[in-house]
Design brief:
The complex is a heterodimer. By secondary structure, chain A is mostly helical. Chain A has 15 helices and no strands. In chain A, helix 2 packs antiparallel against helix 8, helix 6 packs parallel to helix 11 and helix 10 packs antiparallel against helix 11. In chain A, about 60% of the residues are buried. Chain B contains 3 helices and no strands. The longest helix of chain B is centred in the N-terminal third of the chain and has 29 residues. The chains are: A mainly alpha, B mainly alpha. At the A-B interface, helix 6, helix 7 and helix 10 of A face helix 1 and helix 2 of B.
């Protein structure tokens, strides 16, 4: 087995996963400011990309504990091979592409865990996975994250509206100005995302380098790994997963500036609390819960539960689906180098196919603002045709 | 299996901090509107302050608006800025590395 080829494949695929992670999660920070017009779409994704790039360089703590005990490795456990990581990444990337196609915000970490678990089961049997850790670290947090964030956002939205209500007339006072605050709250979410998510890929690449003996056991990520991961996630973020931004910003509920600020502040508060008080929660699930909570908190707003239900189904499927793809890829990889090549070809095929399907109904930066803003843009002055000019002249005379 | 105590602390901390920050900013906006007319609810035309993004340089209405209201609003926004700085402090491990 040519180890260098597999290492190169893993690094390339891991960086592509990082890229999909970036464009998947732009929505977490920037969907609401884009929807309310606090930031122009291109400006918003540019800001998120810069903050992700900066964030990726800030810490390597998470990268050191990537597998988090989920897969029993080390003494008495299983040996993680690069082939298994490769298969797991294929599962994660394929699932990220599918959820992006459907515009579903789903957790990239769950996809990564799922893919690695599937590959581990094929490579080393069901005993390789610690299911109690799986339930307590992945499944239960996925259930409680949107509920907590939703409740916090609901309360914050209620407060924002109650405080800015004019007691005499019951109307709003300066609520449009919540837009300025939105820029700060969403930037915090983007920065927090950068410090966390790029590190998962750094961890995977470092794990591979250690497993193949190219790097000493117990050392942190090399600088080129950090730089490559930071660039990949920033590029992905800038590309902007417009489909997911559309779902989060306008699909779940119609967001006004006060709600957007309440939702992002709740997202930032929940994520920071969870990462510092030891109860890990998924950014995507927290952000989605916050948007729904802010929709429930404003009187007259309605939440589109069908869309919320679709997102929920996506979350339930993320882990098993990525695991299934990872397992199939791992089965193929057991054939040997030929299997790895088949894996790579199939993986690229799926990615290309999804890009082709997605180009049929493109969602771009122009189609993600709320319908009111779109309507304003659509009302144009009549074209300066000869007939219109003639009319104008006649009217002037 | 699952650490419910840690979970409760996270939920409470998130609830309190988000509520406080949102309330502060909302009070700031409310105070800036003391003695001022009602705006059209959330309409884009309602923006009348600060293109620079810094919230404290809102021009005070020359008449009908008491000084204390502007002062209190600036304090509210200042506390919000402190909250953002604390958020950055929490995000960047360099500041609180053990």
């Amino acid at each position: 087995m040519d180890l260098t080829l597999i290492v190169v494949l893993v690094v390339v695929l891991a960086l592509f996963f990082d890229f999909t992670n970036g464009f998947h999660d732009t929505a977490n920070a920037m969907a609401t400011p884009i929807a309310t017009g606090a930031l122009k779409p291109r400006m918003a994704v540019g800001l998120a990309a810069v903050l992700n790039l900066v964030g990726a360089f800030l810490s390597t703590e998470v990268a050191r504990t990537i597998s988090g005990g989920l897969i029993r490795e080390g003494d008495g456990g299983i040996q993680i091979t690069p082939e298994m990581i490769f298969a797991g990444l294929i599962g994660a990337v394929c699932w990220n592409m599918v959820t992006w196609l459907f515009g579903l915000p789903s957790s990239s970490s769950h996809a990564l865990f799922g893919g690695l678990i599937g590959a581990a089961i094929v490579g080393a049997g069901v005993g390789a996975v610690d299911f109690s850790v799986l339930v307590s670290k992945v499944v239960l947090p996925a259930l409680v994250a949107p509920i907590v964030a939703g409740f916090v956002a609901f309360a914050a939205t209620r407060l924002a509206y109650a405080i800015t209500r004019d007691p005499a007339t019951g109307r709003g006072l300066g609520r449009g100005n919540f837009r300025y605050a939105q820029i700060f709250s969403s930037s915090l979410v983007a920065l927090a995302h950068g410090t966390n998510d790029a590190q998962k890929t750094m961890g995977v690449i470092t794990l591979t380098l250690i497993a193949t003996g190219s790097q000493a056991v117990g050392t942190g990520p090399e600088f080129w790994v950090i730089a490559a991961c930071a660039l990949a996630i920033a590029l992905g973020t800038y590309t902007g997963g417009w489909r997911i931004i559309k779902t989060m910003g306008t699909g779940l509920t119609d967001i006004k500036p006060a709600q957007g600020f309440a939702a992002e502040t709740s997202t930032a508060a929940t994520i920071l609390a969870s990462s510092h008080l030891g109860f890990a929660l998924s950014t995507t699930q927290v952000a989605s819960g916050s948007v729904i909570g802010s929709g429930l908190g404003r009187k007259g707003a309605s939440v589109r539960w069908r869309t919320a239900g679709r997102i929920g189904v996506g979350w339930l499927l993320t882990l098993p689906a990525a695991a299934a793809v990872g397992a199939i890829a791992a089965l193929l990889a057991t054939i040997g180098p030929v299997g790895i090549v088949i894996d790579a070809v199939l993986g690229v095929g799926v990615i290309v196919a999804i890009f082709v399907i997605s180009s049929r109904d493109q969602v771009t930066s122009g189609t993600v603002v709320s319908e009111v803003d779109a309507a304003v843009g659509a009302v144009r002055t009549p074209k300066a045709t000869r007939r219109n000019l003639k009319k104008k002249r006649q009217a002037a005379e | 299996m699952i650490d419910w105590a840690a979970f409760a602390i996270v939920a409470a901390a998130a609830l309190v901090s988000a509520s406080v920050v949102v309330s502060l900013f909302a009070f700031g906006l409310r105070l800036l509107n003391v003695g001022r007319g009602v705006d059209a609810d959330d309409s884009p035309g309602a923006i009348e302050t600060t293109a620079s993004g810094s919230v404290s340089v809102v021009p005070a209405q020359p008449e009908g608006r008491p000084r204390w209201a502007t002062f209190a609003a600036v304090i509210c926004f200042g506390l919000c800025i402190l909250a953002v700085l604390f958020g950055i402090y929490l995000i960047v491990p360099f500041f609180h590395a053990s």
